[in-house]
From TrEMBL, chain A:
Sequence ranges assigned to domain Carrier in this UniProt record: 2-84
PROSITE patterns: CARRIER
Protein source organism: Thiopseudomonas acetoxidans
InterPro entries: ACP-like_sf (IPR036736), PP-bd_ACP (IPR009081)
UniProt name for this protein: Phosphopantetheine-binding protein
Amino acid sequence: MSDLHLDLKNLIIDALGLEDISVDDIDNDAPLFGEGLGLDSVDALELGLAVQKHFSIKIDADSKDVRQHFASINALANFVASKQ
Amino acid sequence: MKFNISAWRAWAPGLSTQEDWLGWLADPQQLSSQDAADVSFLPAMQRRRLSPLARMAFHVAWPLAEQSPKQPVVFCSRHGETLRNLNLLKQMAEQEILSPTHFSLSVHNAIIGLWSIFRQDESEMTAIAATQDGLEHAVIEAQLLLSSGADSVLLIIAEEQQPELYLPWIKDVPFAYALALQLTRGDAWSLSLSLSKEPSILKKQAWPHALSLLPLLLKQATQVTHSVDTRCWQWQVTL
């Protein structure tokens, strides 16, 4: 697991208060929302904010690609890497 | 007005069962612990968004609701989500972007909203904030729901430990507490209001007012009075 992947998993656990989940429970390829981790729309907003703050990047909420970028840990890691 | 109280539960840091409360009443002490109310009966995904206030409310009310079918809820808190709101104000002052979770759960009816979702209960639910006689106003609200056909109403009153910054102005919350009462139609309990000419002077309270019902609930006393401004409330129970 890369540092970025690990960093993202810890960010998700902290920002969304997932007290009984550890980084090992989050699969890089599994969907973050709906099935998989089971996050909801409030989590989506919260995670978007946390990612912007933590990595000092800007996310255009109107962009159609946002949904893709937040689909899984792998997708999010690629997105963050491309913005840095 | 007359009603019955068919079940109740109270919580304060370190106190939760009837035995705990009997012990505390024998020698009432200020409670300073920061313990959070236990809500381990909820799945972690639901629990994670609950504030200390919401945890207290769920802790006292959930077991009462498990005994009954769906029922209306009256939630009362004078100060509400003070901790969440103060944190949001601090973040605004720092010109930070506000947390969507904290923002959406900072309103006064957030707790009954979560209650309704978690319990899948679409009954009528009301959140009120009144002054130091919020409890009595909540009973009026509950009485109205009983009169319009509800078989029982769950009344929850709760206050969290208030932030240091606000303490000079807060006289009615010496420590965090929550009380849940299940009200039904009946005449064992009565609550009446009389008005005095002179307003009573607001003193800093040693105990939260809601907890002064405990001796009645535990059959150690049959009446208690509570004066706020010119309103004088009298609670009475026939044993």
